[in-house]
Amino acid sequence: xxxxxxxxxxxxxxxxxxxxxxxxVRPALSEVSLVIRRGEGFGIVGESGSGxxxxxxxxxxxxxxxxxxxxxEGRAVVGMKRAQRRSFRQGVQMVFQNPFASLNxxxxxxxxxxxxxxxRRMSSGERDTAMKDLLGLVGLHESMLDRxxxxxxxxxxxxxxxxxxxxxxPSVLVADEPVxxxxxxxxxxxxxxxxxxxxxxxxxVIMVTxxxxxxxxxxxxxxxxxMGRLVxxxxxxxxxxxxxxxxxxxxxxxxxxxxxxERSERPWVSSELAASEPPAExxxxxxxxxxxxxxxxxxxxxxxxxxxxxxxxxxxxxxAHLAACHxxxxxxxxxxLAQVS
Amino acid sequence: MTEPLLKVTGLTVEFLxxxxxxxAVDDVSFTIGRGEIIGLVGESASGKSxxxxxxxxxxxxxxxxxxxxxxxxxxxxxxxxEAEMRTVRxxxxxxxxxxxxxxxxxxxxxxxxIEEVIRDHGDRSSRxxxxxxxxxxxxxxxxxxxxxxxxxxxxELSGGMQQRVAIAEGLxxxxxxxIADEPTTALDVTVQAQILSLLREICDTRGTSIVFVTHDLAxxxxxxxxxxxxxxxxxxxxxxxxxxxxQPAHPYTKALLSGLLPLAGEPLAELDTLSGQxxxxxxxxxxxxxxxxxxxxxxxxxxxxxxxxDPHVDxxxPHWAACHxxxxxxxxxxxxxxx
Lengths: 341, 339
Ligand SMILES: Nc1ncnc2c1ncn2[C@@H]1O[C@H](COP(=O)(O)OP(=O)(O)OP(=O)(O)O)[C@@H](O)[C@H]1O
Ligand code: SF4
Ligand code: SF4
Ligand SMILES: [Mg+2]
Known about the structure:
The complex is a heterodimer. Chain A has helices spanning 52-60, 82-91, 109-114, 124-137, 154-166, 184-201, 212-218, 236-241, 246-254, 290-294, 299-303, 331-338; strands at 8-15, 29-36, 41-45, 67-72, 75-76, 92-95, 172-176, 204-209, 221-226, 229-235, 309-311, 318-323. In chain A, helix 5 runs parallel beside helix 6 (184-201). Chain A is of the alpha/beta class. Chain B is α/β, with parallel strands linked by helices. The radius of gyration of chain B is 21 Å and the shape is globular. The two termini of chain B are 40 Å apart. At the A-B interface, helix 5, helix 6, helix 7, helix 8 and helix 9 of A face helix 7, helix 8, helix 9 and helix 10 of B. The structure holds adenosine-5'-triphosphate (ATP), iron/sulfur cluster (2 copies) and magnesium ion (MG).
C-alpha cells in the first residue's frame, strides 16, 4: 500500500502564550505531533481549555508555534514565501462557533460574499452568478443576497459564514464548534451540509469541538486533547469504540448515552478521580487516571510523561493510531474489568 | 391516587411587546410527584425557561402570569402576594441556573453566600451555627476541601465547583421542588456526569423533586423519570422517559430524537432534518403550531385540520401527544398497518 503524502504534518508543536522568557508550566499546547490527510473529516475533541482551538488556529496560520513545525503540502507554514503564503491563506479557511458575532450587521450578504471575489478577474455578471451558485450550494435562496444578517436565523447565518469561507475555493475548512450554538433541529441541517461539501467538493474539514456525538457523525479520524496534550489519535471507530487511552475512555463514558433503558455506568464519577489538579511531573492525566489506580500505581505514571506513540500490536495495527499512555496496550482489557465504557 | 406535590393548571405567561401581547407560555398543565425528576425539553424560544421562571413567580417584566394556578401541596403560588412569595422562594421551591457564577456575589466568600441565604430566611441561630450548616451542605454536594473553599471567592473555584455551590445554595433551605435550568450545559462532560449523578442522588435521598429544563435529550434520558416536550409555548408531548423515547407520539418529538446523534456504532449517512426554524411568540402559527414544519402533516398531504384546529389533549393520560394524528406515529401501529 502506498501512502499519499499527508496534507498536514504537525511536528512536536508547542504553543506557549506566556510573555517574555519565562515558560509556562503548562502551555496551551505541548509537543503535539499528528498528520491530517487530504479529503478527510478530522475531529479535534477535548474539554474546555484542552487546547483544541489553539491547535485549530495554528493550522490556519492565525498563530505560530512557539516550538516545532507545521508542514502543509510539503512546506513549512512559518517561513513560506509571499506567493505561497497567499495561496495558503486562501486555501485554508476557518469558521467560528458564533454565527451571530462573525457577520458584520451593516453589510448585506452580497457585500459579505463579494469580498471573496475581489481580486479575481470576473465581470460583475459572472460574479453574480458565482454568488448565487454559492448560496445554492449552502442551501439558501438567491433572493437572500440583498438581505442583512439580522434577517436570518442562527442556522442560516452559519450557512452564510460557510458560504463566505467557500467563496475563495479553499481546499481546507477548519470549523471551530460550528454547530454548538444552534438548535437541535438546525444542527442537523448544518451537519448534513458540511458532509455534502466534504463529499462533493473534496474538502478537508477539520472539526474542532467538545461534542463527541458530532465527531462520531462527521469525522473519519479523531484526535483527543487533554490539558494541551494529544492523548490519542486514530480512526473514528478505534477512538469511539475501542480506544487505547484511559482518558478517551473516561470522556466517552461520561457522555450520557441517550438511552433511558440503559443508563451509563460510571464507577469513577463519585471517586476522587473526578478532581483535576494537574501534576507537576509525570503523566498529565495521572491524578484522574482509573487505569493507574487499577494497575496499583506504577512508578512510570508519576515520573515520566508518556509520548504519543504508534500502537502496532492491536487487532488492527495502524501507524496512525497513537496513544500517550505507558500502558496503552492494556487499556481495552482493563476498561472491561473496570466497566469504563 | 394521592395528591401530587405540584399541580400546574392552565398556566399562561404573557409579555407586552411592541406589537401587543404575546403568549410565551400558553395554557400549560402538568403535575409532579415527590422525588420525581421531570425533564422540560425544547429549542430556543419554546418557552421552557419562561415556564421555569413562572413556577418561581420570577417572570421578568414586562411579562406576567396572566392566568392559571401553581398549586404546591394545595397552596396556589400564583395567588400569593410578592411578600408571601418571598418566604416560599428558596425554602419550598428554588432555582438553579446555568451560569452559577453570574448569580453569586463576587466579593462574598462561598461560606458567607450560603450563610446569608439561611439568615435572610429568618433563621435566628448564631452566625457560627449558620456557617456550620453551610459547611454541612457543601459537604453534602461533595465540594472538595470544604474548610478551605468556604473562605474562597466564587471566581477562585472551577466551573464544576461553582455549580456545586449553586446547588448547595438551592438546597440549603430544604425546598420540595427545584427548578434546574440547564444546570450542566456550561460544564465539561466529565463534570456534567458528576453533577447529574449528584442531582439524582439528592432526589432519591431527600425526596426533592426537580423540574429539569434543558435542550439536551441525552441528559433527559440520563436522569429524568418523565419528560415534557415544549414547542411554541405549549407542551406537545408528555410521558415517562422510557415510553417517549421508545414510542414518541408527536412528530416534533420524533424529529428531536432523530437529531440525537449516536455516540457509538456506525454513524448515520445522513440526518433527518426539519425544514424552517422554531417560531417565536410573535408569530405562533395557527391551528397546530408545528404545522409549517411537520413531516407527518406533509406526508398526509397537509390536512386542513392541522392548520385550523388546535389538537385537543387529555392531560390526565400517562402518555399523551398534542397531534390530530398521534396514533399514526406509534411505531407498533404503523408496523401493523404496513405488515
Ligand atoms: N491568546 C491567548 N492568550 C493567552 N492564553 C491563551 C490564549 N488562547 C488560549 N489560551 C489558553 O490556552 C489554553 C487552551 O485554550 P484553547 O482555547 O485552545 O482551549 P479549547 O480546548 O479550545 O477550550 P474551549 O472548549 O473552552 O473552547 C487555555 O488555558 C487558554 O486559557
Ligand atoms: S501513563 Fe499512567 S497515568 Fe498516564 S494515562 Fe497511562 S496509566 Fe494513566
Ligand atoms: S396535528 Fe398535524 S401538523 Fe400538528 S403535529 Fe399532528 S400531523 Fe403535524
Ligand atoms: Mg475552543
